[in-house]
Every structure is written in structure tokens, then in C-alpha cells.
Amino acid sequence: MIRYVARKYGSDHVAQIVTFQTIKGKQGIRDAARVLGFPASVGDRLCKMYPPAVLGREYPIEKALDLSTELRDAYAREPEAREIVDTATALEGLRREDSVHAAGVVIGDAPLVNYLPLKLSKDSRDDSRRIVTQFDMHGVEKLGLLKMDFLGLRNLSVIEDTLSHLRRRGVDLDIDHVPLDDEAVYEMLGRADTTGVFQMESPGMRQLIRVLAPDRFEDLMALVALYRPGPLNAGMHHEYAERKHGRRPVTFPHEDLRDILEGTYGIMVYQEQVMQIAVRMAGYSMAEADMLRQAMGKKIRAKLMVHEEKFIQGCMDNGYPKRLGEDLFELMEPFADYGFNASHACAYGYVAYQTAYLKAHHPVEYMSAVLTSVKDDKDRKPFYLNACRLSGLEVLPPDVNESEQDFAPVSSGEPKIRYGLSAVRNVGAGAVQQIIDARRAKGAFTGFADLCRKVDPSVLTKKVLESLILAGAFDSLGYARRGLVENQDKVSGPIAAERKAEAAGQFSLFGGGEQAATEVDETVITSDEFDKRTLLRLEKEMLGQFVTEHPLLDVRDRLAALTDMPIVELETLGDGDLVTVGGIVAGVTRRYTKKGEPYAQFRLEDLAGGVTVVVFPGQYESLAPLLGDDAIVLVKGRVDRRGRGEELQLRAVEITEPDLGGPGRPAEPDGTLVIQIAPASCTAAVIGKLKELLSMHPGATPVQVRFVSSQGVRPLEVGTFKVEPGAGLLSELRVLLGRDAAKVERRGRSPVVTVPEAAAAPAGP
Fold it and tell me: Is 157 a residue whose pLDDT tops 60?
């Protein structure tokens, strides 16, 4: 869409809009401690006193001092703590760095350089350069320029690709007219089985879905609207769920508002409801109510406050008590953070429902389209591959007879997904198309020699053939990968020479060319195979991930019990947060700082994602025994988001070789599964779900449930359970109760290599 308007109005008339990241509370405390000359441990200690974020949204320092007794006491008793916190308070809200607004575009009637400063922004994903304003969206609007939001959704392409897969199977589905009361869809949503579903994938949203248990389209609209900072901070999401399921009574601020709020159980959810309330209760005109809506929609709290006196006075003029006006405005205030309008929620909810419908009824076609949409994303692709594994949907390696360009359903037999040939390293799109065209025109390939004869020889280079072999593209034809890769030139070479001679017009007078083609001897291809570890390593080199099998599959439950979260959920953490994750080591490199000091950097990957881990200078030698390729380790580290435009990294604090048991040896219970429940989650529905989850995973590990509030920690009686604390249970518990809610507390620790936190980070990794 942006390219379209740039072509239509001129590239110098169109630019994307800058957005600025600001310094948050914990980040400000760490920065202040460092600049004031205190050890890093001082800032970290104060940050550990900080109250937990609400679904990723951190409290401001002033509010944190109110909520955290520890932080408030440290501020009162320790001069250094007071100095750091006061300095951080002054820093809070200042702009730290810029990025490009996800959807904002400005269009001018003349070249934009005539109106505002511009700059070039480098996109870290595709190295493209885009023209970006140096004023944010509010500054652009004040200049009177046309600002538009072009929201491109990958999910719309996913829907269309799914429908294309279905049409090839003879199913003509009209996705715009599917029933909105489909039981299978709501049953799937009720399980929080929402991987791949638009707007419904995040752990926080899945947690909310479990509590709310949607059973009508209006609930999906409410989910989209409630999962925003304002409603979440106000606890509206829990109140909506409790009222929906009859656990709390449905009440209205005033009986005159029943018809406006009845559809949302007496809770203000949408901007349109606020407009209706302003008109009915305070005598606003629709134009004035729309100004109130704009103040909420644009997240400008100062403008919203202007309306407070007018609203309260309007309520009094209409015969309502002043207190009612004050209470109503207090209920409306959270919308200043991020109120949704109903039309927006409806559109988002509808796309969410469409994707959920396709996943519930056509999972193979849908997940094929989802995988294709992230085929170039090294983090999201393994996430969805693992989601397919967990749902029992097998993803097969590429195959010369079945694969298309991208991921596609297997055309016959059990429902499975086949990797696309374009995913194979060293095999370009042109070569893939030649293979597919030859297969369609001349029939399926009966063997390696047959493929070499049918496909244009110009694309069948040694590198292309070896890459296809190592990726498993010839497995279905009965070849061992090692035997074929070591002897392929003995088959492909003579055929290539023969076809080259034919192309040059060199034919034998006695028909020798035809005979030569039939005399190629495939018996030279041995049945030798790589050992399993080598086969998987070479497959990963060609495809970017393990496909046939994964080294972590046999130990994933044991590993999950030792970690705080899957790697893919690190994005929910803030800069400096301490976390323990586990996975397999890949791509260890030794680099040097600007001072010439060596440091280690490697990729840590689990079943669903990966992260770059940096180890400080001076520690590489001691860590070397733990950091061999394909080694399985635990990394305790701090989240590092300091790089401009760079991906999240972990700064290692500890690296551990976990005790995962031997093959076939079940994990012995050596600890207790501790579950922590916060007051906001302690509802009858959540406790019921918790008991259900614990009952579904019987084992030998005892369970303790703790109620954690500002008054302290106390045991919570939910019954006696013993469970197997595997990846499935831990993941479900963290979805239901929050990412820090479930952890196995063990009696023993594996040997640890500790990286001193006080060490300075390497300059210029």
C-alpha cells in the first residue's frame, strides 16, 4: 500500500512516520545507578524490588513506590537508593531511541522537505532504506499534513493462501460468509489453542481467553478491546469474565445506562459507549462526544482531563448527582490509555474468527499457509513448526516429487505438511520452478537418474543436487543420504555430458546416445547412511532447522522444568530482566572487543525459537567445554535490548549443563512444583482450570500453591496433587497464571560456570 501511494503521489510526497521509545522506570533506575558510579548490582537490587509488570506494561516509578513496600523502604532509608530513584524519575519518559511507526504514513501536496525534516531509516530485517519523518504523529498533525494508517496484515495473505490450498483440493470456501456461531471454533478457543490465530497468540491473550471462555462473536470483539493497557490496568478484563459467567452480578452505574452497557455486562468497553453516555448523561452533542472520543483514541490524557469539569457539570444540569458524574468520568478515564472503538474491534475480531475457523476446520491447509508466511523468519518459523508437532501435525522434509515452492499440504494419505523446495539452501527459485515444471510435464521422478534426465541440466549443478540430497528431498525414492551424496556425480556426470552432447547435435550414427542413457548404473549409489547426529546437523544446515527429528524432543519436558519460559517468550521481558532458558547450542563464534579482548557469542535454540547469547571477555576458555555445537545447556542471563534496531540478546550470568537423564530413564522427582497465584487471578474460574490441569498430568512431583499479595505469601489449599512437570503442564500453567507463576524448585543444583555480573559488557559486540 505504501508503494502504491508513493507511485501515485510521488516518492518525495510520501514518508513513514517516526515513533520514539521512552525510558521506563526500571531502565531509568539501572541507567541512573550506572551513570552515578554505583555498581551494577545496586541498580539490579532496586529493580528486583519493582512490582511485577501487568501483562508487559511496567508501572511508572511513582506508582511503583506506592505498590512496593521494599522499594519504598529502601528509598526512605538508603541515601544512595533515594539518589538513584530521584534521578531515574527525572529520566523517566525521556526519549531514548526512535523507530518507524508500524502503520503511520504522511502524504503531502508538495515534496515533504518543504514542510518537515526527514531522514533515512535502515530496516534491520531487509536492509531497505525508507524515508521517515523526524516529527512524530502529533507533530505531523499539527502541521496540517494528511496522516493515514496503513495496517498491513500478514494474516490476510495467510487466509488467501489457505483458500488457494482448499481450491486445489476441490473445496470452494466462502470465508466471508462462514457461520459466526461454529461450535468447533469456540471449543478450540476455549482450550486457548490459538497459535496462528490473529490477535490471539500471545501468552497474555491466551490467559485472558481461558478465563473469559468466549462462546459468541461479541466476546471476540471484547477480547480485542480489553487486551489493551488501559482496560488491563483497570482490571476490566477480569470483571468482564466474572460477570459473563455469573460469578459476579451484572450492575450498571445508573439504570438509564442499561441499554448502552447491557451487551458488555455493565462494563464500558468501547469508545462508542462512552460517546453515548456523554450524550445521554451530560448533554453532549454528538460532535462534542466525538471530541471526547478523539481525546481517548489519540491517547492524549491532558485533552481528556479538559472534559472532566464539563462532563460533571453536564450530569448535574440533567438532574444527576455530582457524585455519579465523578464516578462515571473515573470509569471513562482508563480509555485515555487505549480505548478501542467497536468498529475497529469488530474488524479485528472478524479476522480473528476467520483465522480460527480455518485452523479449526482445515488445520493442514491453514498451517501450511502460516508457515509460508514466516518462511524467511528464523525465529517464527521454528515456533510454528513446534506448534505443528504439539498438535500432532507432521511436517515432512522437502521432496522432489511432492514439494511445491513453499509449504503445502501433502496431496494424498494422512494430513501432513510438506516443506517447499525453495527452503533448501543453495537452491534458487529458478531451479525449484524447473524441477516442478519438469515433474508436471514429464511425470513423477522414478529415481535420481530419471530426475537428472528430465530437468534442465543448467540448473542441476553439483551444489544444487547435494543440497537437495542433504535436505532429504530424495528420501522417498529409497536413497540413503550419505550413499547418494558421495556417489551422485557418478550418475549425474554421465547424464549431464550426454545431454550436453545432444544439445550440441552430436548423435551417434548407431543410436549410441539412446543406449548410453539406459546404461547409467545406479548400483554405484551405496546404502551407507550418516549417523543420526550428523544427518540432523547437515539437514539443519540445508533447511535452517531440524525437521526430520529434533535433539530436544526426547528431553523437552525435563528441560522445560528447569527453565523460566520458552525462548520465544523472551520478547515479553524488559531490558535487564533476569531469566533462565534452555536449549541447544549453535554457531559458537569467538570475537574481539575494541580493546582486543576475546568474548563468546552463540545462538541458543529450543524447539520453538532462538536467541543470541553473549559471554563477557575473559570467560570464553572456562566456558569452552560447555559450548560445543549441539550441546544442551541452561543459560541464566539478563535481557539486553540496548542495541538500536538489533534483536534481543541475553548477557550470560550462569551457564549450566543440565542433568536430563539417560535415554529411556524417566525424570526422578527431585523437587516441588511451586505455583504462585496473584490476587487478580484468584477467581473461581481460574482455580477450577488449575485443578483440571493438575489432574490431567499425574506424576510423582508434589505441588505447592501459594497466594502472593502485598500482604505476603501464604499457602493456598486446592487439594493434594502429584504431577509430571513437563513442558505441556508448565506451558499451560504459565498461560493461565502468568509467565512467572510455575517453577520446579529443586533440592540440588548442577555444576555452574558463573560469569561475574559486575564485569563490564564488551565494547562493540
Answer: yes
Closest CA to 742 of 552, 556, 563: 563
Among 65-74, 234-243, 509-518, 623-632, the minimum mean pLDDT is found in 509-518
* DSSP states of 703-735: EEEEEEETTEEEE------EE---HHHHHHHHH
Q: What mean pLDDT do residues 692-703 have? A: 84
Query: Was domain 2-149 assigned CATH 3.30.1330.10?
Result: no
Q: How far is CA 157 from CA 83, 377, 393, 442, 562, in A?
A: 52, 16, 22, 32, 38
- The radius of gyration of the chain's CA atoms, rounded to the nearest angstrom, is 30
- Reduced to 3 states (helix: H, G, I; strand: E, B; else coil), residue 551 is coil
Q: Comparing C-alpha atoms, which of 697, 694, 728, 699 is closest to residue 559?
A: 728
pLDDT of residue 206: 86
**Adjacent-strand bridge partners of 106:** 15, 147
If you search the block for the grid coordinates 522432489, which residue do you land on? 400
What is the crossing angle of helices 322-332 and 301-317, to 10°?
150
Rounded-to-integer distance, Cα 546 and Cα 481, Å: 15
In this structure, which long-range contacts are made by residues 341-347, counting pairs with CB atoms below 8 Å and at least 24 apart in sequence?
341/270, 341/271, 341/272, 341/293, 341/297, 342/221, 342/225, 342/270, 342/271, 342/272, 342/273, 343/272, 344/224, 345/221, 345/222, 345/224, 345/225, 345/269, 345/270, 346/221
Q: What is the mean pLDDT of the segment spanning 424-446?
A: 92
φ/ψ of residue 305, rounded to 5: -65, -25
Please state, as a whole number, how many other Cβ atoms lie within 10 Å of the Cβ of residue 698: 10
Question: Is 137 within 8 Å of 101 (Cβ atoms)?
Answer: yes
**Neighbour count for residue 172 (Cβ, 10 Å):** 8
Q: Would you tell me which CATH number, out of the four given (2.40.50.140, 2.30.30.100, 3.40.50.20, 3.10.310.10), belongs to the domain 553-662?
A: 2.40.50.140
Q: Would you state the cell numbers that stand for residue 339, as one nine-digit string? A: 480505548
Pairing between β-strand 598-605 and β-strand 722-723 as defined by DSSP bridges? unpaired
Give the pLDDT confidence score for residue 507 in this predicted structure: 54
Check: CB of residue 723 under 8 Å from CB of residue 690. no
| Residue 285 DSSP SS3 | coil
- Asked if residue 545 lies in contact with residue 563, where contact means CB atoms within 8 angstroms, the answer is no
Domain coordinates of the chain in residue numbers?
A: 2-149, 159-344, 394-543, 553-662, 671-746
Quote the longest CA-to-CA distance of the chain. 110
Residue 210's H or E segment, with its range, is helix 203-212
CA pseudo-torsion sign 259, 181, 208, 679 = positive
- Report residue 503's pLDDT band, with 50, 70 and 90 as the boundaries: low
CA atoms within 13 A on the CB side of 304: 23
Res 497 pLDDT > 70: yes
> ∠152-158-160 over CA atoms, to 5°?
100
- What residue has cell string 544444487? 464
**Number of helices and strands (H, E) in the chain?**
32, 19
Q: Please check whether the two domains, 2-149 and 553-662, share a CATH topology.
A: no
Residue pLDDT, tens place only, 443-461 = 999 999 999 989 988 888 9
d(CA 358, CA 367): 9
End-to-end, the C-alpha distance of the chain in Å comes to: 37
Answer whether residue 666 shows pLDDT above 70.
Answer: no
User: Exposed e or buried b for every residue in 642-665, given b needs 16+ CB within 10 A?
Assistant: eeeeeebbbbbbebbebbbeeeee
The rounded distance, in Å, linking the Cα atoms of 426 and 258 is 65
Residue found under cell 491453514: 366
Residue 85, H or E segment: helix 79-91
Enumerate the H helices of 318-408 as residue ranges: 322-332, 335-338, 342-361, 363-373, 380-390
Q: Render the burial of 239-268: b for 16+ CB within 10 Å, e for the rest.
A: bbbbbbbeebeeeebbeebeebbeebbbbb
Q: How far is CA 185 from the centre of its chain?
A: 22
Cell 471484547, located at residue: 222
CA 23 – CA 40 distance, rounded (Å): 18
